[in-house]
Amino acid sequence: MADKFAWITEEMNALEGQGLRTTIRTIGSACGPWMVVDGKRVLNFCTNNYLGLANHPRLKQAAQEAVEQWGVGPAAVRSIAGTLELHRQLEQRLAAFKGVEDALYVQSGFCANQAAIPPMVGKGDVIFTDRLNHASIIDGCRLSSAKILVYEHCDLADCERVITENIGQYRRALLITDGVFSMDGDMAPLDQLFELCERHGIITMVDDAHGEGVLGHGGRGIVDHFQLNGKFDLEIGTLSKAFGVMGGVIAGKKVVIDWIRQKARPFLFSSAVTAADTAACLAAVDLLEESTALVQKLWDNTRYFKEGMRQAGFDIGASVTPITPVMLGEATVAQEFSRRLFAAEPGIFAMPIGFPTVPQGKARIRVMISAAHTQDDLETGLKTFTSIGRELGVIG
User: Residues in domain Aminotransferase class I/classII large (predicted)?
Assistant: First the structure.
C-alpha cells in the first residue's frame, strides 16, 4: 500500500533544502534578557518582551493572588458564565488607558482580529488592507466573506487609488492596517490613512500589537503617537508583548464594541481568559500608568543597539521601532547566522525569519530589544553579531 503521507516527507525535505524548515527550540526558564534555551544559557534577542514584564514580580504576585481567589479557570465562555469581575475591570482600565469608550478582552491578539473583522463587514462589503498586514488580519478578512482589496505597503497614493476605483461598488468599507509591522519595524502613516478614510466614509481599524507599551505617551500606542485618540473606530491590541502576559483587546467606540460582543465568534464560543492572566494584565496597566521609565529605557536601548549595528555595517532596513531586522537575503544564510549566534560563547538566541513570513530573498534575523537588557548585554550582542557577520561575509 502506498504511503498516503509521502507528500509530507517530500515537502519537508524541500523546506529543508531551501533553508525554510522551522526549528522549534525549547525554553527552560522564565522569559528575560537571559534565558535557558535547549539547555543552554543564552542572551535573549528573540522574544516580544519589550518592557521586561513577562517575569516581573508584581505581575507574578497579582497572578498568584488571583488563583487563590478565583481558581485556575472560569470554566465557561464569557457570554454564558465566564465573565469575571476582573475581566470587566481590565476592559475598563484598557479603555481609559487608550482614551476610548470601551474595550473587549479576548483570548489573544490573533483571536482579536478574527473576532473584530467579520461582525463589521460581510458579503457585499469591501476591505482595504495593507499588503504586509499580519496573518491574523488576513485570516480575519477571509472569514468575513467581504471583498479583499490590497494596497501596496504603507503607500498612501496606492491606497487612495484602490479606494477611489472601488468605493462606490460596495455596501460598507473597512480599512485595516498594522500600526507597527512586525517583520520590518516600520509604522503605518496612520494620520494620513485616517484623513483618507474620513473623506470616503470608511470604517477604520488598526492592529497595534507592536505599538502598545512602545509608542505614544507611556506606551499608549500608535493612535496616541499620532494624537488620534478616540478617532479610530477599532484598535486591536495584544497583552502578550509589551504587557508581558496573554490575551487580546478590541477597543473603540461603545456602539461598535457592544456589537462585537454580540457577534464575535472567538468571544462567544471559546472559554474565557483565566483570572491569573487577567490580574497580571491589570498589574501591567498599573505599572505603565505609574511611570514612563520602562518605555524610556526601551527606547534608549533601541537607539544604542541600532546605532552600533549601523556602524558595524549591517543593513537594518526601514525600522523606526525597537524591532531590528538584520537583513541577510537568503534563508540559508539567515539560518546559518542564527545557528552560529546560538553556538557562540555566550550564545545569542535570535531566530531566522524566512519565506513565507517575509518575501523570498528578504530573509533576516529579527532582533527584539527589551527594556530589560543592560548596556553590557547590548555590547555582547553587538560584538557577537559583528564577529559572525564578518565570518559569513555579510559585512566587511
Answer: 41-383
Q: Which of 98, 241, 306, 373 is catalytic?
A: 241
Q: Look at residue 23 and give its three-state secondary structure.
A: coil
Catalytic residue among 87, 210, 306, 362: 210
Residues 316, 284 share a domain:
no
pLDDT digits (tens, 9 = 90+) for 233-273: 999 999 999 999 999 999 999 999 999 999 999 999 999 99
Residue 36 and residue 107 in one domain: no
Q: What is the DSSP track for 275-336?
A: HHHHHHHHHHHHHHHH-SHHHHHHHHHHHHHHHHHHHHT---TT--SSEEEEEEESHHHHHH
- Which range marks the domain in which residue 118 is found? 57-290
State yes or no: is 4 an active-site residue: no
Does 241 qualify as catalytic in the annotation? Answer: yes
Q: Are 318 and 179 in contact (CB under 8 A)?
A: no
**Half-sphere CA count of 231, side-chain side, radius 13 A:** 17
Q: Report how far residue 82's alpha carbon sits from residue 25's, in angstroms, rounded to the nearest whole number.
A: 34
**Comparing C-alpha atoms, which of 118, 88, 119 is closest to residue 104?**
88
How many separate domains does the chain show? 2
Which of 312, 266, 313, 323 lies closest to 114, judged by CA?
266
CB 107 within 8 A of CB 247: yes
Whether residue 370 lies in the annotated active site: no
Low-confidence ranges of the chain (pLDDT < 70): none
Residue 257: predicted pLDDT: 98
